[in-house]
User: What shape does this take?
Amino acid sequence: MRKIVLSVLVISLLASCKNKDGKSFTVSGVLHNAPSKVVYIEESNITTGQKTLKDSSSIAADGKFSISLNTPKDAICNLRLQNDASQFVTIINDASKINLDVDFNKRTDFYTVTGSNASKSIQEYLGKITGMQGDRVTIYFQIDSLQKNNGDSLLILDLSIKQQQITNEEKTYTQQTIQQSTNSSLSLFILSTYQGMARDPNFRVNGFTDPEVVALLTDVLNKFPERTDIAGIRNSMEEGIKRAIAATPKPTWVGRQAPEISLPDTKGRTVKLSSFRGKFVLVDFWASWCGPCRHENPNVVQAFNQFKNKNFTILGVSLDRPGQKENWIKAIKDDNLTWTHVSDLKFWQSEVVPVYQVGSIPYNVLVDPDGMVVAENLRGSALEQKLQEVLN
Assistant: This one.
């Protein structure tokens, strides 16, 4: 486990601990077989990777040390020895007293921490993920040996499958740990640690995609809405995803078959675009959080009321965020959108985004009774004019 503790790579897309409330705490304990006489404590900024030296303590002949300091609440702190740039333990100050017992002669399970639930969770996570990686490395060398000696191809395949299963388990375990965490700084530390390993090819870790990181940060914000710093980073990543999508060459759908859409409606029932075959359907991509969409909605409502009895309907496809179903439903009611609505509540990582190459919203396509797209991106009076053309 010490290899991971000493090899944490910090990514610049995650938030630092900027809670304004200061918190006094004491970290003390025993450092057995320490190759130094001084221990330092640093506050770690996850955003920049910068480590700020906060205090130090001499290590007594019996290995005892004690440091008291004031840092922001739930700050991430590292302990390191004099003349060593790498930390040997990472803690979070979620308690007033934290105790450590470290033995530098041990390669694994070299420390215990008490008094701090978040710090204990760091230790448990690093221990579990290290064990998984050890299993993967063992299988890697078995496969390598078999391949070099023309070994059984079926055995190589079986080992490769097991290796991939462990890789998937690492990612699932990390995701579950983040989602189940009751400490926002702990969530960020685990996410940044895992993503840092994913950026290092030596670890062979399957990292989270940007949309997956956004979803995880949204989960954290749902539990800790006061973390405006995390919200800022999440929003910046969302904008980056939107820009990347917008920069992708967008196909013209007119004259082409409309791709299938199969998503749950507001009551969880699956609705398919193909179920509207035989009618003209305006597939309207929008979201409750989208100001321009809400501004355009009165035009869409007017068109619906004018043509709904002329073999025309609307399928609203929302790109609302995870965990914000209530906002979606409220916007439908507030804007009088009395047609069918569907959403997987996955924001820009919705499955329909890459299919329809949705780079911005509001956006729509008009589908004829045979499922062919006859117009797209109809805004304002253009929507009414096109419907007059095809329905009258």
